[in-house]
Structures are given as structure tokens and as C-alpha cells.
Specification:
The protein is of the alpha+beta class and about 180 residues long. About 60% of the residues lie in helices and about 20% in strands. Strands 1, 2, 3 and 4 form a four-stranded antiparallel beta sheet that branches. β2 (about 90-95) and β3 (about 100-110) form a beta hairpin. The radius of gyration is 30 Å and the shape is elongated.
Length: about 180
């Protein structure tokens, strides 16, 4: 009878050990999957640095083959695309037919080449002032439509290019991009 009791305890111990082994194995597999996913996300998001360097090399090779720097329709020089973010969002009120609306726009400037990037960065306060002037003339009813937003982008681009031509002698900015647009 003593043997029966010992066998029962051993059976329970074996079940406890196998249950613990299964739990441990599941935990190890989960940790490995999480680490693999984290590493994959890191390389996917941070691995783009090499691609941009090779893109810059391709752009340089294309420029050297043509012998001169080409111009884009907007007047900005061709080169690698660089984005100059506005340091803070534009927040303002616009009148509407029913009521005034609050608008917040986050913007970035598309420029080509390092010289244009430096020019744009140097004149950020002037560009912000110009954009705020254009934005504050908008109408809430127009901004509620896609066509109204596109028209605002075009007006913004024309105003920024005009002011940059007056100050720097060339248009510098190829596009004004809205990276955030909220209207309440």
C-alpha cells in the first residue's frame, strides 16, 4: 500500500513537472516571438537610412550626367527631396456661414537640395507669417471640402514662393504639404 501512495505522488510530480515545462516552453516561445517582432520592426523602420544614401548617390549621378541642374515647374532646383517642418502647428479661427470654426494645420515644405533647405530654415519666421496670413483669409465652408483644401495649398505655395523670391532671388519651395488638418 505504501508503494501505491508513492506511485500516486510520483505521478502527480510528473504531471506538475510536465505542466511547468509546458508553461515555461510557452513563455520562452512568446519571448522569442516578441524579440523577433521588435527586431524586425526596428530594422524595417530604422533601416531606411541606407536607402536614402543610395538615392542621393543616384540623384548625384543623374545630375552629373546631365551636366546642369534642371528646373522643376515650380522653379525649385532638382535634387534630393528634403522636407522642412514648420516648428509649430498653425492654429486660428475662420468664419463660416453657420458659425466660426477653429482650425489647426501642421505643414511642411518640400524643397530640393541642401541650399534650398538652408534658405527655408533660415526664413522660417517669415514663412510662418506668410502662411498664417494666407490661412486666416480662408473660409470655413471652403475648408470643409477637398477642393477648398487644395486651393489653400496652392495659395500658400504661391505666397511662400513670392516671398522667397523677394528675399532670396529664387522660389526655394516646391510644395507646401499639409501633414495635419483639424477643423472643429
Amino acid at each position: 500500500m505504501a508503494d501505491d501512495k508513492d506511485t500516486g505522488k510520483e505521478g502527480e510530480l510528473e504531471l506538475d513537472n510536465s505542466g511547468k515545462k509546458k508553461k515555461m516552453m510557452i513563455i520562452i516561445i512568446a519571448v522569442v516571438i516578441l524579440l523577433g517582432g521588435g527586431a524586425g520592426a526596428y530594422f524595417f523602420l530604422m533601416g531606411g537610412g541606407d536607402d536614402s544614401a543610395s538615392q542621393a548617390e543616384l540623384d548625384a549621378a543623374l545630375d552629373s550626367n546631365s551636366g546642369e541642374v534642371a528646373k522643376v515647374d515650380s522653379g525649385a532646383q532638382l535634387g534630393s527631396a528634403l522636407y522642412v517642418p514648420m516648428p509649430r502647428p498653425f492654429r486660428f479661427n475662420v468664419p463660416g456661414a453657420a458659425r466660426d470654426r477653429f482650425v489647426e494645420i501642421r505643414a511642411q515644405l518640400l524643397v530640393r537640395g541642401g541650399d534650398n533647405e538652408e534658405n527655408a530654415k533660415m526664413h522660417i519666421p517669415l514663412i510662418e507669417s506668410t502662411l498664417l496670413g494666407v490661412f486666416s483669409q480662408a473660409n470655413a465652408d471652403d475648408l470643409a471640402t477637398s477642393a477648398g483644401k487644395v486651393a489653400l495649398k496652392q495659395q500658400s505655395l504661391a505666397a511662400v514662393q513670392k516671398i522667397m523670391t523677394d528675399v532670396e532671388g529664387d522660389k526655394t519651395v516646391e510644395k507646401v504639404l499639409f501633414t495635419g488638418f483639424v477643423m472643429q
